[in-house]
Amino acid sequence: IMLHSTLALSLLLIAVTSNLAMAIKKEKRAPQTLSRGWGDEIMWVQTYEEGLYQAKKSNKPLMVIHHLEDCQYCQALKKAFAENEEIQEMAQNNFIMLNLMHETTDKNLSPDGQYVPRIMFVDPSLTVRADITGRYSNRLYTYEPQDMMFLIENMKKALRLIQTEL
């Protein structure tokens, strides 16, 4: 009888430890693949269509980031974007967020060409905001790592437009 209870106890211990190990594994969330390094705490939408739907439904602006994996400018921008607390906070709370590694069929999202990186805003009335641009006249919607304060201002501008226009 002693052997029997020892065996039962060890089985119980094994069950408890493996459940614990699984719980610990679950707790450490795998990075969300849709973030692609732009911010794992942000809820990213998967497609432009889903972004438009969510923007309309939630009355939040949609922020679209066009980028490519093998583009060094995109990588540098991504790092600055992901490390900026104010941008991350606003992106989490006030925007519908989408990052794309392919072009959309919406020509309004490439008014001055299909270059990367570029960041554009679409308001909840589903209007692409051609009036919210970066600092460069040759690529209106491009931002560089040192432009994060400028991007923050543009994010605030996108939020203000909703209150005043819509």
TrEMBL record:
<protein>
    <submittedName>
        <fullName>AGR3 protein</fullName>
    </submittedName>
</protein>
<dbReference type="Pfam" id="PF13899">
    <property type="entry name" value="Thioredoxin_7"/>
</dbReference>
<dbReference type="InterPro" id="IPR036249">
    <property type="entry name" value="Thioredoxin-like_sf"/>
</dbReference>
<feature type="signal peptide">
    <location>
        <begin position="1"/>
        <end position="23"/>
    </location>
</feature>
<dbReference type="GO" id="GO:0002162">
    <property type="term" value="F:dystroglycan binding"/>
</dbReference>
<dbReference type="InterPro" id="IPR051099">
    <property type="entry name" value="AGR/TXD"/>
</dbReference>
<keyword id="KW-0732">Signal</keyword>
<dbReference type="GO" id="GO:0005783">
    <property type="term" value="C:endoplasmic reticulum"/>
</dbReference>
<comment type="similarity">
    <text>Belongs to the AGR family.</text>
</comment>
